[in-house]
Amino acid sequence: MRGTVRLAWLAGLALWLGVSLPARAVPDGEKVRAVASFSILGDLVRAVGGPHVAVTNLVDPDSDAHGFSPSPADAKTLARADIVFVNGLGLEGWLDRLIRASGTRAPVVVASAGVKTIAAVHAHAHADGGHDHDDHALDPHAWQSVANVRIYVANIRDGLAKVDPVHADAYRAAAEAYTAQLDELDQAVRQAVEKIPPANRRIITTHDAFGYFADAYGLRFIAPQGVSTDSEASPRDVAEIIRQIRREKVPAVFLENISDPRQMELIAREGGARIGGKVYSDALSGPDGPAATYLDMMRSNLRAFDAALAPG
Prior knowledge:
This protein has ten helices and ten strands.
């Protein structure tokens, strides 16, 4: 106990002086204490880390990472971490302040490092030919493309191997096995989308979380909000979406697990589209839900899209 108190005192003193302490070396026989910023990323860390890693999510399943408000308990969680995994690309705007407040010396791994990013432009056409644009530079939802998650897994593997080199071979083997599952998933998504008539490959969702899915697989997503749920869609945005549904005969509106369904129910009702079911964009479901893991989440979304858009 005395050693723990002394370590905490030294960490506080170092933070006050602006001095960096070395990251904790993981003792033999202990699990790596990994912190993931949100539930989807936490699941990927568990898949690669296996029995050698204990993972804590800052943002829980069915919760929104965009508008998350950290607590003092979250700072304590980071202070105890051996390694921290974040998505990056602007998803966790609250995280830098939390890391500074925690005084953690754990290495921070940006899981999306190396992905081919897409612009986060949220635009609605108007009668005068103009557009409204979201002011975000990049779309942070890179995990919606399975190919990108292969990169996430490689970054997670390498990060764990650095803090726990004793089990580096286990992390490499787990990453390889999981990547094989991702390859199967990617093929299943492509086959399912091919069965949807091209005229039906248009979907309304709550916010622009599926840009990478659209880019990879050929569906078109329309949303009244931008890439972040921090801002509310304006009445003009909602009215334009309703007109677009009627004009283009968009077949289905999907509800996201992190969003208030009332606005989308109004859009579906006024636009004459059907409610296509719930989809999972930024968070997993709880352990008893249909999207308890990343692989389950993608399959659940695919089933919802297929049921609403496929012929017959």
